[in-house]
Design goal:
Elements lengths: L1 E2 L2 E5 L6 E6 L10 H16 L9 E6 L19 H14 L4 E5 L2 E3 L1 H8 L2 E4 L4 E3 L2 H4 L5 H11 L1 H8 L4 E3 H7 L4 E2 L2 H12 L3 H12 L7 H11 L2 H12 L9
Parallel strand pairs: 3-4, 4-5, 5-7, 6-8, 7-10
Antiparallel strand pairs: 1-2, 2-3, 8-9
Length: about 250
Amino acid sequence: MTVQSLRVERDSHNPHVAIITLNDPDKRNALDAAKASALENAIIELEATRQTDQPVRVIVIRGEGPAFCAGADLSGGVYARDFFDSLTRMLTAIARCPIPVIADVQGPAVGAGCQVVLACDLRVFGDRGAVWVPAAQHGFALDTWTHQRLCELVGGGHARNIMIGAATMGVEQALATGFASLHADPAGAVEYARTIAAQAPLSMEHSKRVLNSADASRDPSLDMLFRKAWASEDAQEARAARAEKRVPRFRGQ
C-alpha cells in the first residue's frame, strides 16, 4: 500500500512483519497534518490484521533516504491549525497499538521525528542514527507526554540535555542508555523484527500495555490480559515445544 508519501509493505521473508516507510526524501520525510494522519491510519489498518489469517505481529517504521524524519514541515505544516491534533493522534496510535512497533533509525530523527521514535516500543540505530529536539531554537514547546516519555526512556539528565540543551543523542549514547535496543543496518533491523515476531503476541501485548500505563495497578483490563496470556493456547504450545525440544509456533490465541 502506498499513500502519497507513505509506503506500507510486508517483509518478503516473514509476512508477520510489516514495514512502514516515510517516503518523502526530498523533504527529509518532514511531517505535516496529512502525513501524520496517513501514518496513524496505516497503524490502525495493520492492527486490524490481527483478526485475519495473516496477522501483523511487528511493525517497523523507517525513513527513505538519509533522514528518518526531519520533524515538522517548517515550510508551513507545523503552523497549520490541525497539525498538533494529527500529530497527537498518530503518536497515540503507535503507543496504544497492541502490536510491537520498532523504529529503524538510520538517520536523524528531529523534533516530531524524535516523537515518533519515542512512541515506538523498541529502537534500532544505524551508524548515522540520532535524535535531536531543537524546539528551544525555534521558539516551540513540546507536549508533556514527550518530556515524560523521554525522561522515562533515557533518564532525567539526558532528557534535560536534549530538551533544554538541544543536544543530539547518537548511536553510542542511545545504546549506553538503553534507548536503542540494537546497532544495525536496515537489514539487521528487519531481522530483529523477525525475531520479535516469533514471540507470543499476547505476552508482548500485555507487557506493552503495562509499560505504557500511567497507573497499571488500577487498570483491571491489564489483569484480564495477564490471565488471558497464562490461559492461552500459546502458553500450552510453549510448554509442549519445550517437552518436544522444538521451536514453538505461536498463534496469538
